[in-house]
User: Fold these one by one.
Assistant:
Number 1:
Amino acid sequence: MHFKPFISEEEIQDTVARMAEEIANDLSDEIPVFIGILNGSFMFVSDFVKKFPKPCEITFIKLASYEGLKSTEDIQRLIGLTQDLTDRTVIILEDIIDSGKTLAEVHRIFKKENVKELRIATLFHKPEAYKKDFKLHYVGIEIPNKFIVGYGLDFDGLGRDYPAVYQLKTTQHMTNIVLFGPPGAGKGTQATFLKEKYDLEHISTGDVFRSNINNETALGMLAKSYMDKGELVPDKVTIDMLAAEVEKNADAKGFIFDGFPRTDAQAKALDGLLEGKDSDISAMIALEVDDEILVERVLERGKTSGRADDADESIIRNRIQEYYKKTAPLKDYYSAQNKYFGVDGVGSIDEITERLSKVIDKL
Ligand code: IMP
Ligand code: MG
């Protein structure tokens, strides 16, 4: 079970302050009764009333589970409401409203109380999970339909004490590698071996471009005009193609990105893409090869690959220069996260695969 940071202590506190202010502004001079639903709301109620700028009363009620008539049936009832609430303004303080079952129970018991007004305030709300029509008067933060823990909310009884909120990771752990290196470094060759060995999807920007070009897609034609000149394709075009490729392989154990990202903006876009899959880049691995060896290797490849940009030495040198100029910041980007690994890219294919595996096995 993995949890990742989701909502910071600061954001929670700001939200609670905003809710306290909004509710205070909506109320006249009467003294409201705040009712927290235990257990989850204890932390929210405590922080909320400290920020609430006017006098107020505070009480709690609790959901109790009884066994139903059939042993599988779980009946939930709210207990603990002993105070006379006739003609009072009552504001329910909930930590989270999920399906709305608890809220339905709140409405059921308040039907019998002759309150002046009943309002519902919840710190968190999952709109996608909500199945009721009861109005939610105050909502702190809307969240996706995923399990969260912290700030009063528990997972199997634990985690209520955390001042921040964490989200349960639902997808399996992925190994996502950015294979890095100038043209001719052997990325494609190594990716083929690593893909087999670690059961990963290989996404080569070059291949994705070429298949778009062969199929004469709009993105493909656009990309072509840049590639023919030995220039990098603009970020937006590249990212759109890559996102589609990742989506095609929704169940992958991980990806090898080859030829991508090449700019800071692309690296951030890639982070965003993977974050949407509850994942991230595990490592950037760079194959390090001397310039002269690179030119030789690419010219050799050009004899058989049929790629126009592999046949012309000045275009090759331009691509190598372009690579170093534009990708240097990426090394810093991943180094700052301790995710950058340099690997000697000169040697036999097996030797280099071995060196790469040493890095991947430790991820
Ligand atoms: P309801 O579905 O709106 O009735 O919410 C039921 C209860 O489930 C809440 O009061 C919480 O105690 C619990 N709950 C719902 N979603 C979460 C969550 O993401 N984390 C922890 N507890 C939750
Ligand atoms: Mg609750």
Number 2:
Amino acid sequence: MDSCIFCKIVAKQIPAAVLYESDRVLAFPDVSPQAPTHLLIIPKAHFSHVGEIPEAELSVIQEMVGAARRLASEKGLSERGYRLVMNVNPEGGQTVFHVHMHLLAGQQMGPSLVG
Ligand code: 5GP
Ligand code: ZN
């Protein structure tokens, strides 16, 4: 997707501090962090939202969770805890239409998931 900002990060056309990279997954810090640690974990392939991932390719979500918990562990966040969030489509709060998972950590998360 030519106009997709995360595809440009995958293609190294926009810089990002890559924290994890595999054949199918990339992780980097969110440009506008909402917590002391705020990382984004994305599939390298373009899917606009989770509903667009073909059933046969859903294992990429497994890889994303694997990357998330590995990063959390590396950063010493596993015991304290962290939050993984995927916003889906506008009413779900999605603003960048390339599938991504937020890893938020470093502070006590509030009880509300819908703020
Ligand atoms: P969403 O609201 O779609 O779930 O999350 C999109 C996230 O992408 C936001 O937290 C936003 O700060 C982040 N973001 C938008 N543009 C860029 C960018 O160019 N680089 C990085 N690293 N993050 C971005
Ligand atoms: Zn994309």
